[in-house]
Amino acid sequence: MIFVYALLALVITFVLVPVLIPTLKRMKFGQSIREEGPQSHMKKTGTPTMGGLTFLLSIVITSLVAIIFVDQANPIILLLFVTIGFGLIGFIDDYIIVVKKNNQGLTSKQKFLAQIGIAIIFFVLSNVFHLVNFSTSIHIPFTNVAIPLSFAYVIFIVFWQVGFSNAVNLTDGLDGLATGLSIIGFTMYAIMSFVLGETAIGIFCIIMLFALFRIFTI
Which residues bind Mg(2+) (predicted)? Predict the structure, then answer.
């Protein structure tokens, strides 16, 4: 079934890209390139700003299918919630810039607070309502040492989700750099998840991987 989820994510993205990208171009939802930037980037002017919708839709659709068939799919539900939440922040930011003609978009403070809010909700669902059985201890690699954090674990969750999201955003460019790094990251997460027996998390990582592969053929 893992192969089926991977193939489904890939096929959905391949179908959506030729449909959505031209639509966004016709609606002039394009990227503006600053004149002081590299000249090699000028040819990318007009690249659809909301093109990430194709990948988000693929991830959502495939994850919903996986939730139906995977045993103990709560981790997928939680990770999908975070993905949709952070994706929605990006969509609103782009919408304000492109549609509302406000070059500022969401302020850094607004985005930061929204990201923290999503991370806190993730913590509450997973560790307060016990939607999943995540450990609240930090295990030191290659040792038997585990540091229990209890409710202080929320600080770690916020740092992890907000920090990783912004780290990817800082590497984002017009050449697939962020996608390439994300694929490397999700590959390792998938391997670790399957090795540790966290099949649902591994499946979600595979879905992310194959949904992102399409960008290299655009």
Answer: 169
| Per-residue CA distances from 207 to 54, 140, 159, 218 (Å) | 13, 28, 24, 19
Calculate the alpha carbon distances from 60 to 27, 64, 85, 91, 100 in Å: 24, 6, 12, 15, 27
The answer to whether residues 58 and 212 touch, using CB atoms and an 8 Å cutoff, is no
Stated length of the chain: 218
Q: How far apart are CA 207 and CA 69, in angstroms?
A: 14
**Spatial CA neighbour of 86 closest among 64, 131, 123, 117:** 117
pLDDT in tens, 41-90: 445 555 566 678 899 999 999 999 999 999 999 999 999 999 999 999 99
Question: Measuring CA to CA, which residue among 66, 31, 46, 19 is closest to residue 210?
Answer: 66
pTM for this model (two decimals): 0.86
Q: Is 74 annotated as a binding residue?
A: no
Express each pLDDT in 109-124 by its tens digit. Answer: 999 999 999 999 999 9
Residue 207 — very low, low, confident or very high, per pLDDT cuts 50/70/90?
very high
Nearest to 157 by CA among 193, 117, 192, 194: 117
Give the residue carrying structure tokens 């959506």.
Answer: 16
